[in-house]
Amino acid sequence: MSAHEFVGIATDVDPDDETALLTAMDSVRRNGVQTVIVTLGGAGSLAVDAANAYRIRTGDIATVNATGSGDSFLAALTSTVAFGTVDGAHGLIPALRMASAAGAANAMRFEPDVGSLHDVLAQLPGAMVDVLPPPSGAGTS
User: Computed over its alpha carbons, how large is the radius of gyration of the chain?
Assistant: First the structure.
């Protein structure tokens, strides 16, 4: 979900405060969600699972129209979790990278559309995932 949507759930969180956002995301996770992912537009996205927090960065792109980028992110995330990447990689980090690349590819086009798989894969080198220290409470039920 987007940061705008997330603050509808965690109403006392400043979406520009990464530490507070990660802590609130972890609180949601501890209430029964396996992985919580919040997109931040051009600033990338954040994710929290039981083991870690993650900052997902997108390479420098020329944004033309970001409409549909969140949908593209989610579509790539779910398909990569289900089927793996084109080179056979599985897991959350490859899925987050592919999702970030798809969101970026979409934002670079005038019409909401990721274009071809080649267009998405061209953005993959810039899609980086930083593993962060777990927020307070991570690793607990």
Answer: 15
